[in-house]
């Protein structure tokens, strides 16, 4: 079974030892994506905008790997404060309202940079594999 690594281009991937995503067979495992704007590399203060940015990165990563957001079967959401849950729920509904992947409700966690409020990771399976 082939294994394909998808890179974000970040120098941290080699330093830390991770990939933006790994495609293994019919699955794509996307690493946690935070809320930095993928074009400007600026982190918005708003948790909902951070979630939207994370989903933009996830969608682009899945596309590069040959998958679509509709292929997402699992999602995990991390926030630094439980208060951000209510801010990101509408973004989750916008993104996954029809897809409805299995999901961990929410994990409250610390992140490496204080401006980070949201991190989202997903697993996708090719629709043709199901």
UniProtKB/TrEMBL annotation:
Alphabetized Pfam families for the sequence: Ribonuc_L-PSP (PF01042)
InterPro entries according to UniProt: RutC-like_sf (IPR035959), YjgF/YER057c/UK114 (IPR006175)
CDD domains: YjgF_YER057c_UK114_like_6
Domain of life: Bacteria
Segments crossing the lipid bilayer: none
Name of this protein: RidA family protein
UniProt organism field: Sphingomonas colocasiae
């Amino acid at each position: 079974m082939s294994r394909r690594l998808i890179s974000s281009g970040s120098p941290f991937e080699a330093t830390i030892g991770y990939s933006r995503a790994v495609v293994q067979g019919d699955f794509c495992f996307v690493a946690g994506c935070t809320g930095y704007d993928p074009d400007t590399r600026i982190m918005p203060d708003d948790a909902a905008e951070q979630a939207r940015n994370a989903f933009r990165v996830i969608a682009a990563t899945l596309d590069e790997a040959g998958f679509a957001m509709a292929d997402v079967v699992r999602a995990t959401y991390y926030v630094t404060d439980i208060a951000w849950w209510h801010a990101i729920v509408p973004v989750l509904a916008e993104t996954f309202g029809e897809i409805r992947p299995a999901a961990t409700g929410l994990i409250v966690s610390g992140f490496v940079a204080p401006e980070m409020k949201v991190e989202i990771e997903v697993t996708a399976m090719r629709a043709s594999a199901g």
